[in-house]
Every structure is written in structure tokens, then in C-alpha cells.
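@channel sequence for tomorrow's demo:
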Amino acid sequence: MRFIKNLYLENFFFVALAIVIGVLLMGFVWHPFLIVGQVLLALLFLVCLGDIFWLFNKNIHISAKRKTANLFSLGDENRIDLLLKNHALISLQIEVIDELPFQLQKRDFRQVVFLAPREVKKISYTIRPVLRGEYHFGNTVIYLRSKLKLVSRRINAGQLQMVPVYPSIIQMKRFEFAANPRLSQFLGVKKMRRLGHSYEFEQIKNYVQGDDYRSLNWKATSRHNQLMVNQFQDERSQPIYCVIDKSRQMRLPFKDMSLLDYAINTSLIISNVALQKKDRAGLITFSDKIETVLKAENKTLQLKRILESLYNQKESLQEANFELLYKAMKSVVRTRSMIILFTNIESRHTLDRIKPILKRVASYHLLMVVFFENTELAEFGESNAEDITDAYLQSAALRMNDDKKFLTQELKQHGVHTLFTRPENLSIDTLNKYLEFKARGLI
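C-alpha cells (generated this afternoon):
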């Protein structure tokens, strides 16, 4: 039964069988064709039988092993390696199909590989997961064919495997360089000149253009016969909270990922950089109720707690309850902190409803509200109009996009910092804002 299950007839077999049937049908018109057709049918049967015996020879053995990372990063290209080994003493041409997780919705993965005797070959490909959760890989299926290509043998050479998809570890490590001031130009991270002082003295150094002249050390200047300045350490152990709105307005998709997932990736990056800079990182998520509260700490396991919490976040279909958020923050966030609020305010009505709460939070903390630019509306508004209807729709799209910019300006007038950015630029723009606030001594 197992033999029948792994035996497949190829397209060339059906072509040959159709030719034989045609010859047999012609035998009803002219009798010699009937004899020729019977001979061809017997020959086809014998050739297929020999092909089957060759394919199912015990000396032919192929193994495959899938190598992946322990976990995948959300929204990034993750590499997978397939190691194929031909244990036989003859060359083989095989077709490889790796059974990918259903979340990828990719059903056309197949590659044809030529293996020399005893050869080991590696096939590499990448996947881009856009949903968090468990990704289950099936078997690595190999179809073995002879040169006749009449029948094929199916070999399940791989193994079942589960890999979880977490918030982007790849991006977190990439932006980790921002924790080092000497490398803060990496990938567009701005190096901000510090405008104020902290209280902890670090060293005396040579004056360079841009240093605060109020920090000049005149005694050291006279001794070295050149300008010297006092350098102070940045303020440390400042509480940094990432507050994520998980309500239905955060379900909007951009490039296959929701706004919530963009906010989750950025929260992990900011938390890691904050911990690298000796600040305390915390996390709050909410929708119609408060769901996750991690008090800001800089302990060793804090980043792992944040990562696990972000991994388990689920989208909500309810409206966001900002009144409940304010009440929770009053009881949890007792000292002045930097609050990065990831939400999606689309209309003035929504802003008017939550503006008093945001102003109250900003009076106690350094609050920055993140606004997401609707890239599809912006691209549609800048495209060429083909008729009057398109022109009307494009003007409406541009007006909606401009209205969102006006909302950010309105919040700034009330002392609330804002960030208006595209979803794909969220991580780098938010990180630049954090570094800017650190350099200006606002936190």
C-alpha cells in the first residue's frame, strides 16, 4: 500500500498512452494498426515496469534537512536552508517541494535540482511572515524521476517543524547600534547635539565646534593652552513607556502588515535601545480595557518580558478607551516619564474626544503621539487623473491627508509632541525622536 501511495504517473506517460490508444482506434479501420497498437501497449507497460523497479531500488536514497533560526522576525526576510544529500552512486535529477506554513499562502514553491553521486547541495530561500504566531512546516517532499520520465517516486525526506514568529529581532539588533553614540549615524539615525547639562561629570575633553561654551573649563584651558570643556553623562534610568492602542483603527493594513504590528516592532526596538542607554523600559497595551502593563524597569530579563508580551498581543474590534488608559497611567506611572503613544487618529471628531486626556497626560509626562500617514491615499492623490471623477477623488484623498497633518499641528499647540510618519519609516523616525529628546535633556 505504501508503494502505491508513493507512485505517481507523469505527463509523458499519458502522452504515450494517448498515442497508443490512437493507434488502437485506427486498428478498427485497418487491422495491422491493431497489432501495432497492442505491441506498443505491451512495450509501454514493460518500460513503465522497468522504470518503477529502478526508482524503487533500495540503493537509491536521498535525505533532506531543513535548517532555520529558532524564531522568525515579523516583517523581515528570514532565510531557510535545505540540505539535500544523494546517497546513491548514480546522478539523480529531483524536484523538491517544501511544504510551507499556511500563513504564507504560498503554494508554488518547487525547485529542480541535479545531484551528482554522494553530493550534498544546499538550497536557500527566504520567507517574509506578516503575522505573529506559530508557523508549522510540513515535510520536504522529493519527486524522483528517471530519464524516461514516465513515472515518479515521492520521497518524504524532511521533517515536521514549528517556528514561532516574534516581533522583529532582526530590526532590533540592527538598530541596537544606535545605543552607541559613535555609531548613531547608522541607517539614518541622527546624532543630536546636546543642548543642556546633566548632573554627573564624565571627563574633560578638547573643545570642538558645537560644544556648549558654558561648559568651558578655564583652568584646564590655561594648563593645556587650548580650549577644554567639561563633558557630562546623559541622564540615565529615565522611564520610557511604549503605549500601544490595539483597537480596530489599528487594524489597517500597509504592505501586508497591520499598523498594530508596525507599532509592536517599533516598541521592541525602542525598549531595547532604551535599556542599552541604561533607561527603564515599560509597556502598556489597551483597547476597550487595559490588557498589558509592564512597569518600567532596567533589569536583565525586562527585554525578554517585553518581547513575550508583544508576541502575545491580539487585535481588538472595540473602540479605544482613553479614559481608562489615563486612570491606569495615574496608578502605574508615578514619576515623570516619556510616553510614546501608538494610535491612529483619522478624524477631528476622534481628536476632540481624546484631546483633553492627552493634554492632561502631557502635563505630567513627556508625551509623543504617533500619527500614521495613509500611504495609499497619498499615492492615489499624487497619481495622474484620467477623468473628472478621478480628479475629484484625488482632491478628496489629498484633503484627508492634509487634515491629518493639521491634527498633529493642533496637538503641538497644546504641548503634545507628535510624529507623523509612514508605517515603513516608523522605527527609524521614532528612534530619532527618542534620541533627540535625550540629547535636548527633555527626559
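heads up for whoever presents: The chain has four domains: 2-55, 62-166, 170-192+235-439, 201-232.
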